[in-house]
Amino acid sequence: MAQRPAGDGAAPLSARRLLPCAILAGMLLLPLLQAGRSCSTPCFCFATPDTLQCRLVRLLEPPPELPAAVHNLSITGGNLTVLRTAAFSGGWADGEAARPLANLTLLLLTHDHIEALEEAAFAGLPALATLDLSHNRLRSVAPGAFAGCAQLRTLRLNQALPAARDARALEELLDGALVNLSLTRLELAGNRLRELPPWTTLPSGLLHLDVRNNSLQALPPEQLDGLAALGPLRLHLGSNPLRCDCASLRPLLVWLRNATGRPAGDKSLHCASPRHLRGWPVFRLRASQLGCRDGADLGLPEDGGQPSEPETASYVFFGIVLALIGVVFLMVLYLNRKGIKRWLSNLREACRDQMEGYHYRYEQDSDPRRASPGDL
């Protein structure tokens, strides 16, 4: 029996090994370019306008060599533990980053067991706009950890702060690291927070604060007043065990009444206690259900259902739309009045000619006994 040459089976085997990598690269291309999810296996990927490279490797430190044109970088499942100064730019040399990445805008570092961020950990990334540190276990954040990230707008710390349960612990952990940033969105979901972060630790101009899926039961007035000083901030409060009694819910309702709008996703705001209100939507509560004895106006309806202001606004908007449709219809009629008059005149003449034809035929054949010579 002839033996197959060794080279015959090498190509199929190589192709079988490369197929999973090709599939993974295809799956990661869209998330990287659209700032979406990162890879779900230990790997790191980077994308430039022309190339996309992914490697299945568990990193112990940031990759030492990256092309200067890299736009998106994702590292998942690594064991980075500590991010030192200029960790992604080749370290610190002569007072600046050794290899700055001037085009990097998206950095995803999820599930990387990161515990500490040292001073200027992200130095050398001047264009960084989105940083995702979710699903880590941050225990130490230096005050200047984000120094040099002047373009940073979105910071995700979802399930990344295991020790920051109350405001004091969160303040000690952040320790002024966010104050000098120009963030517009900060995500702190899933951290089991029992209090809102102190407003002194948050950057001014923040537009969205995501504290969903935490352990918030009541929001003290002093915390809400501090958030009001930051500007038109929108709170994402869904999936928190809110306590719906007068003392606990009144500060939130008063703050929302004075704020520019309701919290995003307010349909997911439900009461967790007391027992008779468990699962009840917050904005379907009646004022009498809270048991406020002083009769303060909390912005809740007295007869249940949604508050009257949004409903009234919807009816007004519907009436305006109908009025605009009527005005447009009248304008069309007015602009085409001559054509409509001509069409009605032609229709009337056609009907008159038709009726005269029937009348003439009836007069001509009115006596059936009279037959014309052609009928004989």
TrEMBL record:
Record's signal peptide: 1-35
Domain of life: Eukaryota
Domain LRRCT intervals: 240-293
Keyword set, alphabetical order: Leucine-rich repeat, Membrane, Repeat, Signal, Transmembrane, Transmembrane helix
GO cellular component: plasma membrane
Record-linked SUPFAM superfamilies: L domain-like (SSF52058)
BP term (GO), one: negative regulation of canonical Wnt signaling pathway
Keyword Transmembrane helix: yes
UniProt-listed Pfam families: LRR_8
PANTHER family linked to this entry: LP06937P, TROPHOBLAST GLYCOPROTEIN-LIKE
Protein's name in the database: Trophoblast glycoprotein-like
Organism: Eublepharis macularius
Gene: TPBGL
